[in-house]
Specification:
The structure holds 2 protein chains of 2 kinds. By secondary structure, chain A is of the alpha/beta class. Chain A contains 12 helices and 14 strands. By secondary structure, chain B is an alpha/beta fold. In chain B, the strands form 2 sheets. A 12-stranded mixed sheet of chain B has the order 12-11-10-9-1-2-3-4-5-6-7-14, with helices on one face. A two-stranded antiparallel ribbon of chain B has the order 8-13. In chain B, helix 1 packs parallel to helix 2. Chain B is globular and about 60 Å long. The chains are: A alpha/beta, B alpha/beta. At the A-B interface, helix 2, strand 12 and helix 10 of A face helix 1 and strand 12 of B.
Chain lengths: 359, 356
């Protein structure tokens, strides 16, 4: 079996340029409290953060997220700054922006436009997003416009028990709109999700993944999903596909919030256990007893005693240390955990375009 | 250039004992050698398991002190194999007959010896009397016993002139690898900082080394490695092509752990009170002070943000800035560029396969 350390690390920088948002979605992992603060990262801070990660870690893929990143007061300048510093940029939006924004979001500048859409059924959309049907159709219009503008359009669809039954309908619905990529996400137990929604249980999730695999493949759109829980005999397949283990432990994917706090995994965001801070380009780790880093470096007792030679690479620390996951999952050495954020392609159809590295 | 293609080399440096027969002038261990602490078998197994689970570590360097002085060396080696690690053991060469009987090639994937001169005089200047002859005999013994045998030579002002003779000696001894190291004045070495080569002298050493390897006749098997430590702007793309990946400490790839449980992420700081953390029963607890190594190695000079080749040197080496030797990024003019002094590349091994 290919050793896991040979797999390429995905060095993405997730920059939460603003906490402001025009929606209060039930599955938002940031949570209403952070959204209500509506804090914005200044251009000066953004510049020092981009410099810092570019230089020290060679990061060159930048996700602009929020809140709603298109609400940043100087979005145009943020994008240009990222490009000038050598980053490829993707922006993750709820899709409720005005048409004139397509003057800024051009294919030359934006590698991929990520739009969240959690249902193709307007009523279900309304329930998840606490938004109106008008909003639903505005998003659909923007998706069509984005496709017409030549942008690579990727839809992110977060699955909970609320929308799992209708979710596969997204494939046909989005394909017709000309969308390029559909990424299913597995609802994490953070932020609003803890209060308003339920994730699928590990077994339900596995069934959902099976249903994706059994659905009719399409050539027009790539579909990705996070396996999250797998049978131990399948690990080899995922390692061959590039599963790199927990990206938190090697500090590969920093999420920088508007207040300068850095979480290395978004599942930990509900707690004051951020891994580090960055202010004026100075990076300092948090060494509180329960800081993210301390938790990542505390192996689960079950894993230490496990005789599977660490097939799963120590799994995901969130199940052991995040309160919301109490009694959610215990490893039985048959169903083993992968990082909830790691996605793979459906139907054994590996998309060849390099653009798909950026998802 | 796409640093996204970065993979890691997770190595574990396990200092299984602080005991040593010697008092080398250039030893980076510092005062801890005097306390004679030994890592218990239970502890070693725990660390191997922890790192395997947390990071997928697969290669352990057994170090000390003198690791062959560990009272249960045979059990240590067995445990490393039980936990499915590749094992590299580094010795000062003072191995007793009794110890030879305890170690077998199937437990050690590579046996390294520290050799600091081609002559008794220069080697013993750093390492003390009666150390050269036993070392040479034990290198021969290791080869005879079919160990994959390697030599490590730390370059100082005292031995730099002997480099061609050192290469010749390594070739004659029929070892597979000779790896030169950059001397940094830390630990006991801080009292002998005058032994450190100036930047200019180091660059000359590198030039002469390449020249020498191209001219003299050496055994085909012998692969020679050296750390560039700092390079000219012109050479930077070559370093990148050779696989330089920036500071390995920033991703916690290479942990060094001592018998007292202290854990470091860069060996330049081993004699400083700035450890990364401490191993305890549950895993690691991260050092809570601001002087945590993680903070030190993650300080970036603001100048680097504006520099066009910062993406290759990754903001240089924090140890250079901290200790004020080598090339500090605060003073870097973008002509002579700092890279990790622990990163080595080969003079005559195009595949760079021996160390990778």
């Amino acid at each position: 079996m290919k050793p896991v350390y040979k797999n390429i690390k995905e060095r993405f920088l997730f920059l939460y340029i603003t906490g402001a948002c025009n929606l209060r979605c039930k599955h938002c992992y940031l949570g209403n409290k952070k959204l209500n603060q509506a804090q914005e990262l200044s251009l000066v801070e953004i510049e020092s953060i981009l410099d810092y990660f570019k230089v020290t870690s060679g990061h060159d893929k930048l996700y602009l997220i929020g809140g709603e990143p298109t609400m940043h007061s100087q979005l145009d300048k943020v994008i240009n700054m990222g490009i000038n510093k050598g980053y490829s940029i993707t922006i993750s939006t709820n899709g409720l922006f005005e048409k004139k924004l397509f003057n800024i979001l051009t294919p030359r500048k934006i590698v991929s436009l990520n739009i969240s859409l959690d249902s193709w059924i307007p009523e279900e959309f309304q329930e998840i997003r606490s938004a109106s049907q008008k909003d639903f159709y505005k998003i659909i219009d923007n998706i069509k416009l984005a496709v017409n503008h030549g942008l690579q359009v990727r839809i992110m669809c977060t699955i909970s028990s609320l929308n799992s039954e209708s979710a596969l309908g997204m494939i046909e619905f989005l394909e017709k709109l000309g969308v390029h990529i559909l990424s299913f996400h597995n609802l994490g137990m953070t932020g609003n999700a803890v209060r308003f929604l339920k994730p699928l249980s590990p077994l339900e999730w596995m069934n959902f993944c099976n249903a994706i695999e059994k659905s009719t493949p399409t050539d027009k759109m790539a579909v990705y999903y996070p396996p999250t829980f797998i049978r131990k005999e399948d690990i080899k397949k995922y390692i061959e596909r590039g599963y790199p283990g927990c990206p938190g432990r090697s500090l590969d994917r920093p999420h920088v919030l508007p207040n300068g706090r850095i979480y290395f995994c978004p599942l930990f965001m509900d707690y004051e256990i951020y891994g580090a801070k960055i202010k004026k380009g100075i990076f300092s780790f948090s060494a509180k007893n329960n800081s993210e880093l301390n938790l990542y470096y505390r192996p689960n007792n079950t894993c230490i005693k496990c005789d599977l030679n660490n097939l799963c690479l120590g799994g995901c620390p969130a199940y052991s240390y995040i309160r919301a996951y109490n009694n959610f999952y215990t490893c039985d050495k048959n169903i083993i955990p992968l990082c909830i954020l790691w996605t793979t392609y459906a139907w054994n159809k590996k998309p060849t375009a390099s653009i798909h590295d950026f998802r | 250039m796409n640093k996204l293609n970065k993979t890691y080399e997770p190595f574990l440096f396990l200092y299984i004992t602080n005991q040593c027969q010697l008092n080398c002038k250039h030893c980076y261990m510092g005062k801890r050698l005097q306390n004679g602490q030994v890592m218990s078998i239970r502890y070693i197994r725990k660390i191997l398991k922890f790192m395997r689970v947390l990071y997928g570590h697969y290669r352990v360097y057994l170090l000390g002190g003198e690791p062959t002085l560990h009272p249960e060396l045979d059990r240590v080696l067995k445990i490393c194999k039980e936990e499915k690690y590749l094992v590299v053991l580094t010795s000062n060469g003072l191995i007793s007959q009794n110890t030879w009987d305890k170690i077998l090639p199937r437990y050690i994937d590579s046996l390294s010896f520290s050799l600091d001169g081609a002559s008794r005089e220069s080697h013993e200047f750093l390492r003390g009397e009666d150390t050269f002859q036993p070392l040479i005999e034990n290198i021969q013994e290791a080869c005879k016993r079919k160990f994959k045998t390697r030599l490590i030579c730390t370059i100082t002002k005292k031995n730099v002139k002997e480099v061609p003779r050192i290469i010749k000696l390594a070739s004659d001894l029929q070892v597979g690898l000779l790896s030169f190291h950059y001397f940094t004045p830390t630990g006991r070495g801080s009292h002998y900082s005058t032994l450190q080569l100036s930047n200019k002298e180091w660059l000359k050493f590198v030039r002469d080394l390449k020249d020498c390897v191209s001219k003299i006749q050496i055994n085909d098997r012998l692969k020679i490695y050296y750390p560039p430590a700092f390079v000219s702007k012109k050479e930077l793309p070559l370093i990148e092509m050779a696989g330089y990946k920036g500071c390995p400490a920033r991703n916690l790839e290479r942990l060094a752990i001592f018998p007292n449980g202290k854990c470091y992420i860069c060996s330049a700081f081993l004699d400083q009170n700035v450890s990364f953390g401490q191993i305890n029963n549950r895993g690691f607890s991260i050092n809570k002070t601001d002087s945590n190594e993680l903070n030190i190695i993650n300080r970036m000079s603001l100048k680097c943000g504006k520099c066009s080749h910062a993406y290759i040197c990754n903001g240089g080496c924090a140890a250079y800035n901290y200790f004020g030797y080598g090339v500090s990024t605060n003073k870097c003019g973008g002509e002579l560029i700092p890279i990790c002094p622990l990163w080595t590349t080969s003079v005559n091994d195009k595949t760079q396969a021996v160390l990778r």
